[in-house]
Amino acid sequence: MLGIGWSAALGAVLGMGYALATAATHRLAYRFPKRFVEIALGGLGVRLLFTLALVATVLVAVPLHRGMFIGTFAAVFAVGLAREVAALARHRHEPPSSPV
Long-range contacts for 24-31 (Cβ within 8 Å, ≥24 apart)? Predict the structure, then answer.
């Protein structure tokens, strides 16, 4: 069984992976302002499904301290999710770009 420290580290890595995937999706979405919401929300769905599958696989396949893994993952995931909501709100309040 992995110790508490390694379990926390694994949870943090998976949560950070979600946050980095969010940043990459939003970077792509900003290049297409007219389709920003479609790309951002579509990416959200894909990221959530992939992350859920990955967390479930780790919980089944890796002997670790489950409470620490889930707690650390949830904390880092929540920060990434808050950043995503802030980016969506910020985009909503930006003036529309002029057609070129």
Answer: 26/84, 26/87, 30/91
